[in-house]
């Protein structure tokens, strides 16, 4: 193995381990907290978490084996199943992020009617659509034998071995990425930009009230005035940072892989195999970033996983104290004669 292959294998191992740990922690928070389970967006986050976990235990290990052995790991049937899962899970993850953005848009733009427009039943219907939409493409690919081991990405994914099917496969790949990546990106941009517009409008109203208050309070201390103005600036930047993170991570992780998949059909451009695996690793990195972007860094999840860790540490300390007490009772101190 070359130094590049060793480095890429190490990156895949790190992505796999972090994705497993982070998504399991999100799942534990969901099971531990009744408040999180009551929230409608929790269904979308749960679906996204399961997609990321399945990706970490199915596609990532086979990509690691493909990098190490430079050939298809396992038999054709195993590769077809993993390729089916990879296509389904990637599309489902993208659509789950789009569903989360729609939920935020309704909550911010239509706050008074949110509970009537986004109920558990509505969320279940949206999830049903995402599953049907996500399953349709790998079912078609499997029926046309367009699943297999792609050496460029060292992965079991969409792959056509028959030259006579090239035109149909190119059309299928274009439609697939248009109705998964592009559709989700358009929904993300539309909904989050609407949310940002409303957030900026509310910020302006708060800024006007703050400035009027500062003008009326003539005797206010300069440090207090400065803190108010600093909070104003942070308030303006907060929504922009969050929305930039949602859209930015989506584009950064998925766009290189999608563009590479489309460019590979060109006879003019030669794609380096190392770049193919790097673009695949970037797509895998979304399974690592999602738990932090959508869950673990939020206040409610942060409080929940801290409670879980404290509970585990407290239980282990109680157990160690009990064991120490038992050993002390079994070995009483000897009296000097």
TrEMBL record:
<keyword id="KW-1133">Transmembrane helix</keyword>
<feature type="transmembrane region" description="Helical">
    <location>
        <begin position="44"/>
        <end position="69"/>
    </location>
</feature>
<dbReference type="GO" id="GO:0005886">
    <property type="term" value="C:plasma membrane"/>
</dbReference>
<keyword id="KW-0675">Receptor</keyword>
<dbReference type="InterPro" id="IPR051880">
    <property type="entry name" value="GPC_Orphan_Receptors"/>
</dbReference>
<feature type="domain" description="G-protein coupled receptors family 1 profile">
    <location>
        <begin position="22"/>
        <end position="294"/>
    </location>
</feature>
<keyword id="KW-0807">Transducer</keyword>
<feature type="transmembrane region" description="Helical">
    <location>
        <begin position="169"/>
        <end position="195"/>
    </location>
</feature>
<comment type="function">
    <text>Orphan receptor. Displays a significant level of constitutive activity. Its effect is mediated by G(s)-alpha protein that stimulate adenylate cyclase, resulting in an elevation of intracellular cAMP.</text>
</comment>
<feature type="transmembrane region" description="Helical">
    <location>
        <begin position="6"/>
        <end position="32"/>
    </location>
</feature>
<keyword id="KW-0297">G-protein coupled receptor</keyword>
<feature type="transmembrane region" description="Helical">
    <location>
        <begin position="243"/>
        <end position="263"/>
    </location>
</feature>
<dbReference type="InterPro" id="IPR017452">
    <property type="entry name" value="GPCR_Rhodpsn_7TM"/>
</dbReference>
<dbReference type="GO" id="GO:0007189">
    <property type="term" value="P:adenylate cyclase-activating G protein-coupled receptor signaling pathway"/>
</dbReference>
<keyword id="KW-0812">Transmembrane</keyword>
<dbReference type="InterPro" id="IPR000276">
    <property type="entry name" value="GPCR_Rhodpsn"/>
</dbReference>
<protein>
    <recommendedName>
        <fullName>G-protein coupled receptor 26</fullName>
    </recommendedName>
</protein>
<dbReference type="GO" id="GO:0004930">
    <property type="term" value="F:G protein-coupled receptor activity"/>
</dbReference>
<feature type="transmembrane region" description="Helical">
    <location>
        <begin position="123"/>
        <end position="149"/>
    </location>
</feature>
<keyword id="KW-1003">Cell membrane</keyword>
<dbReference type="Pfam" id="PF00001">
    <property type="entry name" value="7tm_1"/>
</dbReference>
<keyword id="KW-0472">Membrane</keyword>
<keyword id="KW-1015">Disulfide bond</keyword>
């Amino acid at each position: 193995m070359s130094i590049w292959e060793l480095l890429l294998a190490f990156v895949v191992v790190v992505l796999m381990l972090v994705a497993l740990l982070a998504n399991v922690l999100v799942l534990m928070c969901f099971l531990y907290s009744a408040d999180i389970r009551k929230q409608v967006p929790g269904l979308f986050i749960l679906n996204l978490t399961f997609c990321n976990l399945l990706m970490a235990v199915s596609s990532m290990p086979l990509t690691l084996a493909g990098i190490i052995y430079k050939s298809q790991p396992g038999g054709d049937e195993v590769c077809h199943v993993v390729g089916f899962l990879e296509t389904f899970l990637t599309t489902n993850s993208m659509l789950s992020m789009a569903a989360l953005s729609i939920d935020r848009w309704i909550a911010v733009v239509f706050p008074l009617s949110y509970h009537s427009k986004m109920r558990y039943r509505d969320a279940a219907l949206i999830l049903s659509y995402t599953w049907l939409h996500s399953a349709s493409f790998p079912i078609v690919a499997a029926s046309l034998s367009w699943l297999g081991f792609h050496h460029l990405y060292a992965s079991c994914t969409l792959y056509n071995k028959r030259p006579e099917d090239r035109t149909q496969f190119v059309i299928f790949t274009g439609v697939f990425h248009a109705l998964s990546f592009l559709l989700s990106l358009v929904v993300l941009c539309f909904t989050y930009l609407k949310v940002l517009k409303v957030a900026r409008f509310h910020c302006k109203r708060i800024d006007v009230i703050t400035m009027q208050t500062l003008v009326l309070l003539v005797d206010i201390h300069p440090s207090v005035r400065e803190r108010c103005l600093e909070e104003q600036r942070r308030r303006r930047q907060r929504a922009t940072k969050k929305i930039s993170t949602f859209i930015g991570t989506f584009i950064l992780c998925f766009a290189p892989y999608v563009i590479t998949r489309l460019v590979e059909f060109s006879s003019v451009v030669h794609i380096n195999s190392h770049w193919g695996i790097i673009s695949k690793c970037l797509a895998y990195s979304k399974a690592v970033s999602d738990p932090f972007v959508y869950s673990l860094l939020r206040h409610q999840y942060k409080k929940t996983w801290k409670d879980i860790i404290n509970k585990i540490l407290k239980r282990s300390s109680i157990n160690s104290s009990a064991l120490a007490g038992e050993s002390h009772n079994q070995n009483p101190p000897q009296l000097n004669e």
